[in-house]
Design goal:
249 residues, binds nicotinamide-adenine-dinucleotide
């Protein structure tokens, strides 16, 4: 897949999946705006395309508007959007019956409202370019329950699917596609709790039909496919990338 001549806006690009997606897009020729609330990672490999790194809080609409303007100024437009940023706060995200509602609101601002900010500001640039593709990150956990509930995460990620479907309908005639990736458990900074716990990874691997947990490259490969012209008749749908975990009873 070549993305030469395209410009991508990748959120969560200071984290696991977003960084991989940004680097893979650059390797395939795209110019990339890498956006994250974290400082720029030390090692970003050079690709065929260029990048700018924008340290920005995506839950702030004005900050997203400014980041989009900086991207357009740097690269001349935006064709692709990967909405990857998200938070899963294992310590504070609990059952809806007991959790702090300020935490609930913050999780929704980061996981769902941020995607509204990016799509609102980027869609006009995709229209001007004659089309585009958006991929939004949810989770398989919003399709099933959890014995240890993280209800704000689960509900906000379910909202991502609904938002994407609606955008697909609204933007289809403008040749803009909108799809969702539903990752299963994957090794990344979000799952830093596994860093010193090989047993946890092994136990989880046992229940995944393909016998391992996901890697950020698995998610990036799926994301680049959906962003690419190879997926030109795919919109308003979800791609599960979980090694078969959801297929289990
Ligand atoms: N890792 C998994 O097991 C897993 C499973 C299912 C779904 N997901 C989803 O995949 C996506 C990527 O996850 P990951 O594993 O790469 O996580 P990660 O924690 O490594 O990366 C997420 C990035 O989002 C950034 N971010 C958080 N809040 C932000 C804000 N307000 N503004 C800007 N950036 C912000 C973080 O700084 C971080 O760099 C997330 O949406 C996550 O919910 C992950």
């Amino acid at each position: 897949m070549s993305f030469a001549g395209k410009t991508a806006f990748v959120t969560g690009a200071g984290g696991g999946m977003g960084l991989q997606i940004a680097c893979d897009l650059m390797a395939a020729g795209a110019n990339v705006a890498m956006v994250d609330v974290k400082p720029q990672p030390d090692c970003i490999p050079l690709g065929a395309g260029n990048f700018i790194y924008l340290k920005s809080d995506l839950s702030d609409d004005a900050a997203v508007k400014a980041a989009v303007a900086q991207t357009v100024e740097a690269f001349g437009g935006i064709d692709l959007l990967a909405n990857v940023a998200g938070v899963l706060w294992f310590d504070r995200d609990k059952s809806a019956l007991e959790m702090d509602m300020d935490v609930w609101d913050t999780v929704f601002r980061i996981n769902l409202k941020s995607m509204v900010h990016t799509t609102r500001h980027i869609a006009p640039h995709m229209k001007a370019a004659g089309g585009g593709s958006m991929v939004h990150f949810s989770t398989i956990q919003c399709l099933r329950g959890d014995d240890a509930p993280q209800d704000a995460y689960q509900a906000s990620k379910a909202g991502v699917i609904a938002l994407s479907k609606s955008l697909a309908i609204q933007l289809g005639r403008a040749n803009i596609r909108s799809n969702v990736i539903l990752p299963g458990p994957a090794q990344s900074p979000m799952q830093a709790r596994w860093d010193d716990d090989a047993a946890a990874i092994e136990n989880l691997s046992q229940v995944v039909p393909l016998g391992r947990v996901g890697q950020v490259t698995d998610m990036s490969n799926a994301c680049l496919f959906l962003l690419s012209d190879k997926a030109s008749f795919i919109t308003g749908t979800e791609l599960v990338v979980d090694g078969g975990l959801l297929a289990r009873p």
